[in-house]
Amino acid sequence: MLKSRPRVLLFNVEKVLAPNIAALREARVSQSVISFMMYRSPSTLYQESLKFKEGVNNAIEMGFNPQRSTFAHAVQVLCDMPESTFEQKKEVYGRWGLSNDEILLAFRSHPLCMNLSEEKIMEIMDFLVNKMGWQVAVVARCPVVLFFNR
């Protein structure tokens, strides 16, 4: 982590990082997931503590398992993305006919699907649904396909 993101040394570990790691432990997040977060998305762990705890709690409420790496990705998305942007992304998926439950299913399966730009979502959904003939519900069950090159 230090090699790839040395700027983390500029943050106050005691005031920012320690409370957020404590919040993860309190939520019974496994050490392997905490380590994964430190390596893959250290900036998420340096969020303001109240915002970070809210992201952790939201991920748990959405049904993410704190023992799995998808939990780390969900917390990353929920902490790094403004709620209004998250709602906009849900609206984009909704334009394709996905229900809120199907959007949540896709998010739980592959949380980073919410990090895609609106243009990318529209382009890939157009390809999958209109050119390949896929049902939108299939995409919701397997959102990793949104990351494949066509």
Automatic annotation (TrEMBL):
This is Uncharacterized protein. It comes from Camellia lanceoleosa. The lineage of its organism: Eukaryota, Viridiplantae, Streptophyta, Embryophyta, Tracheophyta.
